[in-house]
Amino acid sequence: MKTTFHLLTGVCGIVLACSGCATNPITGRSQASVVSDAEAARESTRAYSQLVSQAQVQGALETNPQTIARVRRITERLVPQAVQLRPETRSWRWEVHVIRSKEVNAWCMAGGKMAVYTGLLSTIQPTDDELAQVMAHEISHALLSHQAEKMSRVQMQKTGLQLGVLAGAMAGYNLQGVAGLADTAATVALQLPNSREAESEADSVGIRLAAQAGYDPRAAVTLWEKMRRVSGAGSMELLSTHPSPQSRIEAMRVLAEKYLPVYQQRKF
User: Looking at the 3D structure of the chain, how many domains does it have?
Assistant: First the structure.
């Protein structure tokens, strides 16, 4: 047990010591930056191209013109607001596809590569204002460099584990057997808390983007009320990558009031 404890302590120390950090220009938060935004965008572009090609071969790309036009109309109103908030994203090749899947999901990769799943549209049945909240939230993850940060933390975690095992070997300990435990502990200690923080950041920036694009911020509340009904009680927030539905709704109510005047000035 002492060896395991020392390994876990050493891993955390090594990871923190090895971490490269940068201050996010939007939130002001210090983020892991071993992997740059440009690197994350290149990886995203490759992955997105493969995913879209595979979906096309499998007939999983949505072809309904009304559905496609609706998603694109909303994202095309959001993207200029994103560019205004972070001007360097003007060079991103923003792109969105609708994918046929029962999964209730949507995402935006680094570099502005987006997807909306038909399962979200059919299950949640969002209004345009609610769908705008979804997409603005996902766009915010890209704006806030969350993918690059997550990739950086994974790299830091792997490096820390490798160095920890090596240090143990040099001290005469064979730590390979507990490396898996250390990996799990490092994930809980590093990745999950950051993921919850990232979700809250994307909520805050996303509702702002949507309001600036002329979408009602109060729709964020109704959206997550729908999401809560679909997902049920959910899992414990402590070990979740997302805030609990109720705490998220309460936070959204506060944000909606904050950005309601912005929406009222910008609404179409």
Answer: 1
